[in-house]
Write a structure and sequence with these properties.
Length: 215
């Protein structure tokens, strides 16, 4: 990407700070494998919140440098809902935009319960302890649930990342790279699949019907 547009790589906050997302993803893999679901939720919340804030900033200041964008982060609304509603999603239809924002806010709300100690969370954990469900000894259903939440958050993160580079480049990535990777799990996730469908108009897909997102 840097060879195509060095400024895009250097000044897009979402791209420049990709290590934030990589660190959290690596941490999540370790935490889930070791049954540490509370810290996993905190990392998922970080990915969700950071992705939204970075994209909103990149979209608000498209021609700005990385330092100016970093300063802009402090000017974002205190309420996450307001920031989330400011995200522009040109690759989606209006109903999907609404679904996306709703999913973001619902996930954020559910993941926030693990950021700070609360009476409700302690009561829930005490009840689990009485049932013999301690940290590191979660049930299969709990592990399956956290895996599903991980996929939901990662799906949203992929959509945010692709919007951060612009639909033109995102479309090129889909038709020249991702369409040739049928096992890529996000082909079948809710919002990445919808974004992919936006590019069904492209000649590459018209010439190869099997590559359309609807197939």
């Amino acid at each position: 990407m840097a060879t195509r547009s060095k400024k895009l790589a250097d000044d897009t906050l979402f791209i420049r700070m990709t290590d934030y997302f990589l660190q959290s993803t690596i941490a999540i893999n370790f935490l889930v494998n070791n049954g540490l679901l509370g810290p996993t939720k905190r990392e998922l919340r970080f990915i969700l919140e950071t992705g939204i804030k970075f994209l909103v900033t990149d979209q608000a200041l498209p021609g700005a440098g990385i330092e100016e964008k970093n300063q802009h982060l402090s000017a974002l609304p205190d309420r996450f809902r307001e920031t989330g509603e400011a995200v522009e999603l040109p690759g989606f239809t209006d109903p999907i935009k609404l679904d996306f924002r709703t999913a973001v806010l619902n996930l954020y709300g559910s993941l926030t319960t693990m950021v700070h100690a609360s009476q409700a969370q302690v009561a829930s954990d005490l009840q689990k302890f009485q049932q013999g469900i301690h940290f590191g000894f979660e049930t299969i259903s709990q592990v399956n649930r956290i895996n599903s939440v991980c996929l939901e958050v990662f799906d949203i993160a992929v959509v945010l990342a692709l919007h951060s580079i612009g639909l033109g480049l995102a479309g090129d990535i889909f038709v020249t790279v991702l369409d040739d990777e049928p096992k890529w799990i996000f082909h079948n996730t809710r919002f990445t699949k919808e974004l992919s469908r936006h590019f069904d108009y492209k000649v590459e897909r018209r010439q190869s019907p099997k590559r359309t997102s609807s197939e």
